[in-house]
Amino acid sequence: MFRALYFGILLFAVAGHAQPQQTLNILFLGKTQTGKSSLINIFYNHIVGKKHEDERAIVIPLRDGADDLFVNVDPYQNYGVGLRQLGGSQTTQVLRYTASNDRYTVHLWDAPGFNDTNEEVTDEETVRRIATAIGETSFNAVAVVLKPNEPATFDIRANMDRVRTMLPKAAEKNIIGIYTRATNASKGVRKAGAEAFANLLRIHSVVRPQTYFMDGSSFFDDGAFDGPARWGKDSSVVHQLLNDVANLEPFDAKEVSTIQNIADVMRAKAENRNNVVTGINEAVAESQRLYRDFMVARHIGDENREYAKQRRVRVETGQAVYYQNKWITDENQKARYYGARQRSNELYDQFVALERHKEALQATEGSLLRELRELKSEWKSRVLWSNTHSFIDYLDHQIRFAQRQSSCSDASRESRIALLESQKNFYELIRDL
After folding, report:
1. First-to-last C-alpha distance (Å) of the chain
2. Domain range summary for the chain, segments of one domain joined by +
3. In this structure, which topology does domain 20-252 adopt according to CATH?
4. What is the 3 state secondary structure string of the chain?
5. What is the pLDDT of residue 324?
6. Residue 61 — φ and ψ, nearest 5°?
7. Who contacts 387 (Cβ-Cβ below 8 Å, separation ≥6)?
8. How does pLDDT run across 140-187, given as a tens digit for each residue?
9. For the segment 314-351, what is each residue's pLDDT rounded down to a tens digit?
10. Confidence class of residue 128 from pLDDT cuts 50, 70 and 90?
11. Which residues contact 331 (CB under 8 A, 6 or more apart)?
């Protein structure tokens, strides 16, 4: 009896200390057409334990060559609202896909790509959509998806800067790199890729970012002789990544929304300040015009001030004729004098009122400038990276590209150029504060 009781207590204790299932959240970011959606399909299959010979689970519609792969997993498990098109930039909203096994419940967040080909979607809008969608979720990792054969071009560097300026400082150690389509990547290529990713991030951290290389080809080509081996390698990478991510301290994505809100407030105040500065410039120009008109009216008044003068006139009476001095008034000159004096007084009153209005605008501009500097300090204290110089160069590049683009209507092109120029003006203001 006592032995049975002992073993019962022991089994209860072991069961009570069984490792609970852990929930992970991974956000996938990167340039458009780097394979984020394909990568999520691959992750999903390996997490749920699919083998090479099993039918693939498709949670995101894909196109591989001439074959279209459509969703065959319950779409109602997805979180979010989005639109996907075969080919081109597929993701336009943030969507969440959930995969589970005995150890983990993994939420895979698919975000729109940066440098989108859609002329009406800018990187600013992409960041805003991401910040709105992820809400107050705690994320274990932010996976930046790259191609191993793609050099660190201007766009790639700018996109990495964009990733860093949307994330809080707490996310510094949660950024990982995943190279897709890294078929048969040698140790040298992998080392170079890891170095390139670390250089792209340029974060001054003691811990270097983790970098992973995925093949992915076995997901589509299940007839290759080494398909099972490549499938096994990808499975090992996925599970190693999950184990590594599970040991990272999650960061609160609410900070992403806070950073975005601060940027939005700065943008609104910057626009307000630009309007105030425009008003000041207009007031200065109008003030100078009024002053010139006032001086002209004053000069006219001075010229006609002596409208009445003494002159010797002949006076005839019945007894005699004599000469005397009399004041003679030039009525035309008198009218010009009084008209010029009235006009100069009116202009002076307008000038004084405009000067007071200009001083009020200058005080408002100074107040807005102080608020902007305080907001910039708060933004810099929260954000992972706050250098805006590369953004300005990147937006210049995007504006020139949009000006040469002929695949869209003139109205769409002009709309995109206006959006890009507005963003550029904002970052120039932030830079110069």
Report:
1. 80
2. 20-252
3. Rossmann fold (3.40.50)
4. CHHHHHHHHHHHHHHHCCCCCEEEEEEEEEECCCCHHHHHHHHHHHHCCCCCCCCCCCCCCEEECCEEECCCCCHHHCECCCCCCCCCCCCCCCEEEEEECCCEEEEEEECCCECCCCCCCCHHHHHHHHHHHHCCCEECEEEEEECCCCCCCHHHHHHHHHHHHHCEHHHHHHEEEEECCCCCCCHHHHHHHHHHHHHHHCCCCCCCCCEEECCCHHHHCCCCCCHHHHHHHHHHHHHHHHHHHHCCCCEECHHHHHHHHHHHHHHHHHHHHHHHHHHHHHHHHHHHHHHHHHHHHHHHHHHCCCCEEEEEEEEECCCCEEEEEEEEECHHHHHHHHHHHHHHHHHHHHHHHHHHHHHHHHHHHHHHHHHHHHHHHHHHHHECCCCCHHHHHHHHHHHHHHHHCCCCCHHHHHHHHHHHHHHHHHHHHHHHC
5. 66
6. -65, 135
7. 161
8. 998 888 876 665 555 666 667 777 777 888 888 888 888 887 766 667
9. 777 767 766 666 666 778 888 888 888 898 899 999 99
10. confident
11. none
Residue 52: phi and psi, rounded to 5, are: -60, -35
Tell whether the model's pLDDT for residue 87 goes beyond 50: no
